[in-house]
Amino acid sequence: MHKLSRGLAAAAAAVLMLGPAACGEAADTATASGTTPVDQTSLAAAQANLDKYLAVPTSIVQSTALTKIPPKKKVGFIQCADPSCAKLATYVKDGTDALGWDLVTVNATATDPGSAMQQAIDAGVDYIATTGFPVVLFKQQMAQAKAKGIGVFLCFSTDVPAGPGNNLFSDCYDSTAANTYATTLADYLIVQSKGAANALVVTIPTYPILTAQVDAVRAELGKNCPACKMSTLEVTVNDLVGGTVPQNISSYLQAHPDVDYVYFTYASLDNGVAPVLRAAGLQSKVKLVGTQGSQPQMKEVASGTAAAWSALPQELSMWTMVDQMARLSVGEWTSADERKAAVPPFFLVTTADGANALVNLADGWPGPTGFQDAFKKLWGV
After folding, report:
1. pLDDT digits (tens, 9 = 90+) for 322-365
2. Which ranges of the chain does DSSP label H, i.e. alpha helix?
């Protein structure tokens, strides 16, 4: 899940499912013919949801303090192949350092996280954490981990934790979060276009968490915008690494001149797009929006090059994963608490003033002010 922009990004940070998409494959999935009259009730519903996410969050989700200090543990972090995932490892280390724990980082390839997980298991870790990879890609190692009592923790994936039932104890920024984030940005498109958006959604379909986001955009447009249209441009990790995504987008827009919004499912997909569109004379014809914006994207919003980006706290997400480890270590992990924390707080940046407040943050909005101290207080350290 991305990322990839650490998440996604991460992201992201995500992992390949079965059958990668072809380079630059486009799928037209219009949600409506474009001739349906604007529904004022649906517009009002979109505006009401959007309004909930325009202010900067001020607190973390977790509020229950541990009854004892977590004992010493050794954590293995499986770092995804996307270059941006290296930053995620530093956030995990910050969290584990706060607990006085040891961290071992193992690099994984995009298609074989299981080998990296095996290294972590062989290293004798107590817990294993990773981002983006679905459990289906490391089922054998998951079974080994469960047999050895090694809990597994995820972010930016779509697997649902069941604790001891499936040996998965977290999935922060899961499909529930993807649905929340994508729905909000879809409602922004609806409101700004007055119910007539024609959006191109750019994604990497081999990352399940990004696919969940695409599905949520499609569903929200179908619900609140019968006249809106949506198509997808599916690219690959190789496209991303090779720098061909901007030209893929430009070519699509030239072939589909009615598109007026380009939606990125995470920030890395936006890299280099604006200059290519400007050179092709397309920049003024489309508005750029996306999920999990970091410094480059906030600079684009501040300058007017982009219209809106969501600010998702990758750093907070990693601390949230560590928090679930701390809870498990003292026997106070609960499914209810994990599910509550699965949707990290976020907000949508739509104005130059809002973006200017973030442009000096190299890795994007980290989370509510003082969130690290809030976690430490909950842990008693």
Report:
1. 999 999 999 999 999 999 999 999 999 999 999 999 999 988 89
2. 6-9, 40-51, 85-99, 113-122, 139-148, 175-192, 208-224, 237-242, 245-255, 273-279, 295-303, 314-329, 335-340, 352-356, 371-379
Q: What is the 3-state secondary structure (H, E, C) of 346-363?
A: CEEECCHHHHHCCCCCCC
Distance of alpha carbon 321 from alpha carbon 129, whole angstroms: 8
From CA 24, how far away is CA 37, in angstroms rounded?
A: 33
3 state DSSP class of 289: strand
Instruction: Please say whether the dihedral angle defined by the alpha carbons of residues 198, 200, 201 and 205, taken in this order, is positive or negative.
Output: positive
The structure tokens listed for 303 are 């300058």
The neighbour count for residue 35, using CB atoms within 10 Å, is: 7
Mean pLDDT of the chain: 90
In angstroms, the first-to-last Cα distance of the chain is 31
Whole-angstrom distance, CA of residue 27 vs CA of residue 170: 33
Structure token pair of residue 105 = 């980082």
Question: How confident is the model over 20-67, as pLDDT tens digits?
Answer: 333 344 554 444 434 556 788 999 999 999 999 999 999 999 999 999
Amino acid (one-letter) located at 73: K
- Provide the β-strand partners of residue 311: 347
Residue type, 116: A
Specify the amino acid at residue 75.
V
